[in-house]
Amino acid sequence: NAGVMQNPRHLVRRRGQEARLRCSPMKGHSHVYWYRQLPEEGLKFMVYLQKENIIDESGMPKERFSAEFPKEGPSILRIQQVVRGDSAAYFCASSPRVAASTDTQYFGPGTRLTVL
Amino acid sequence: GENVGLHLPTLSVQEGDNSIINCAYSNSASDYFIWYKQESGKGPQFIIDIRSNMDKRQGQRVTVLLNKTVKHLSLQIAATQPGDSAVYFCAENLTQGGSEKLVFGKGTKLTVNP
Question: Among A7, A99, B20, B87, which one is least packed by beta carbons within 10 Å?
Answer without folding.
Answer: A99
